């Protein structure tokens, strides 16, 4: 920590000052990342379904339809990557301790 091993904090809920050791600080998963990943997943899936329906109505081969349907996995992959990176960030921060 920039301020040393102990930090003075002010609690807005109970209106008290307290001292916390650096090992008592914990990271939480970002709500912004979760919302962003959810929006990308939802919008990407809807757009993908629209295009799959358009292309499937024109295609006649099974392999072509399977290839187009695999395009629906792209929003799932993006959602999974964003969520996993956020979990790894939180896990790495919370596993780090300041020596006494």
Alpha-carbon distance between the termini?
13 Å
Q: Which whole number gives the mean pLDDT? A: 80
Strand content: 5-15%
Binned, the helix content reads 55-70%
Uncertain runs with pLDDT below 50, 5 residues or more? none
Query: Can you count the beta strands?
Result: 2
Number of helices: 3
What is the spatial order of strands in the main beta sheet? 1-2
Secondary structure category: alpha+beta
Q: Largest sheet at a glance?
A: 2 strands, antiparallel
Alpha-carbon Rg, integer: 23 Å
Bulk shape: elongated
- H/E series: EEHHH
Structural summary, described in words:
- The chain is of the alpha+beta class and 100 residues long.
- It is built from three helices and two strands; from the N terminus they run ββααα.
- The chain has a two-stranded antiparallel sheet with strand order 1-2.
- Strand 1 (6-11) and strand 2 form a beta hairpin.
- The two termini are 13 Å apart.
- 3% of the residues are buried.
- The model has no long low-confidence stretch (mean pLDDT 80).
Short characterization:
With 100 residues, the chain is of the alpha+beta class. The chain is built from 3 helices and 2 strands; from the N terminus they run ββααα.
Which labels suit this protein?
12% strand; alpha+beta; two-stranded antiparallel sheet; 100 residues
Question: Which helices and strands occur, and which strands form pairs?
Answer:
Elements lengths: L5 E6 L4 E6 L9 H28 L3 H9 L2 H22 L6
Antiparallel strand pairs: 1-2
Helix pairs in contact: 1-2, 1-3
């Amino acid at each position: 920590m920039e301020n040393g091993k102990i930090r003075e904090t002010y609690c807005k809920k109970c209106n008290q000052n307290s001292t916390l050791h650096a090992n008592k600080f914990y990271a939480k998963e970002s709500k912004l990342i979760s919302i962003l990943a959810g929006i990308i997943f939802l919008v990407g899936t809807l757009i993908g379904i629209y295009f799959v329906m358009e292309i499937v109505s024109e295609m006649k081969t099974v392999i072509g339809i399977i290839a187009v349907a695999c395009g629906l996995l792209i929003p799932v992959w993006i959602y999974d990557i964003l969520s996993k990176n956020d979990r790894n960030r939180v896990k790495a921060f919370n596993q780090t301790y300041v020596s006494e």
